[in-house]
Amino acid sequence: MTLLSPIQNYLEVDDKELLNLYVHGELDALAELFKRHNSKMRAVAFRITKNNADAEDTVQNALISVMRSAHNFRGEAAVSTWLFRIVTNAAIDKIRALKSHPVYELPNDLPQIFSQINDKDLSIDVVNALKSLPLNQRNVVLLIDLAGWTIADAAQKLNCAPGTVKSRCHRAHLKLAQKLQLDN
Fold this sequence. Notes:
The structure is a single chain. With 184 residues, the chain is mainly alpha-helical. Helix 2 runs antiparallel to helix 3 and helix 7 packs across helix 9. The longest helix is centred in the N-terminal third of the chain and has 23 residues. The chain contains nine helices and no strands.
């Protein structure tokens, strides 16, 4: 097989051949493959995530997965079926990530609430509440909530399992909420 030149028309090439061309270094072949299936991939992602922004992220993540694993395609199914499976898995991963890190709506009167709080008193209360936590929980809160680390990165740094980091963070949040009387 010879690789197509960038000038040749990819419309005459089937999906399996496009994927094979990409594996052999023809980047434009993958672009053509995605162009062919982009709208259906977005539809699959939207059906699962039920959100345009999340569907867009899902398709981007699927593209990265395809780029990394194109050489593993065995050809037992149609390329489109393989692509839709990758998009489905990426969408499921997105839903799982959202469930483990939910996004909360802030109240509209938040600026009013904060204007009533003395910043100095609040920071002292937060520091004291953090100091009251066991060291392992405090470290997790500092890494994840303040430094913005991922659970995986914090787990690696603290030399423990990601599940341990999650449970420590959850327990710390409960204690902080109680200490700062945020549960009322």
